[in-house]
Prior knowledge:
The protein has 6 helices and 12 strands. With 250 residues, it is of the alpha+beta class. The model has no long low-confidence stretch (mean pLDDT 92).
Amino acid sequence: MQDWPEGYGRRVLAEVDSTNAEAARIASDLRQPEWILGLRQTAGRGRRGRAWVDPAGNFAASLVMRPSESAEQVALRSFVASVALFEAFATATGRPECFSLKWPNDVLLNGGKVAGILLESAGMSGGGVSHIAIGIGVNLRHAPADTQVETGALRPVSLLAETGVKLTPEPFLGLLASSYAHYETQYRTYGFAPVRTAWLSRAARLGEVITARTTRAEYTGTFETVDLGGNLVLNTAKERVAIPAAEIFF
C-alpha cells in the first residue's frame, strides 16, 4: 500500500452526497488537512453547478484544509492539485506523455478529459478563508457518454479504456495524497513560482490558438502563459489579455 503522508487525515465513506459538501460539514473541527473519499456520490457536482457523473468504480475525493494565506493565494492551490494529479497518473501508468493539464482545472488523457478539479472555499471576516475544499473526480473505470456532457466539451475518457490500467479508488487516493503532500510543501516553502513552472511544463495547447469564453466576452488567441496570479494570458489580434476565469475550447 502507498505510504500515507504525515500530517494528513483520511476518511473513506461508503456513500456521501458530495465529498465537497462533507468537507464543509467537518471543516470547523479540523486539526489537520483531511482527505475524504466517497466510494459512491449521490449528488456530485462540477464547476458552475454542473452535475458530475460518478458511476461505481470511479474516483471522487476532496481535500479539506484551513489555510492561513490570503484568498488569492488559497485559490492557487488548484494548480497544486493539478500537478499532483498529473503525477499520480504518471506514477500509476508509467506514461506521463499521455497526460496534459487544461487550464484552469482539468486533466487530459490522449486529448480527452479524464479528471476535473473543483475548488470551493468559505470566507470569514477580514477577507480571509475559513476553509477550502479541493474536490477531485477521476474517470478510473467509466467515462460519461458524450450526451451527458455539455455541447463543445472535450470527449470524456476513462483511465481503463485509454491505458488498460485497472485502479480502484483507495489505491489511487494513496498515490494522489502522497503527490499532493509533496507539492503542497513546495508551495508553502517557495510560493507559486515552482508550481507554476511545473504546471506550464505539462500544459495542453501552450503556444497554440485557443478560445476562452467568460460570462461577458469571448477571446481567441495564442495561449502564451499562466501568470503569477494564475490568470490565463492570451495574445489576441487586438491585445494581450489576462483572464482570471473562463471556459476553454480548442
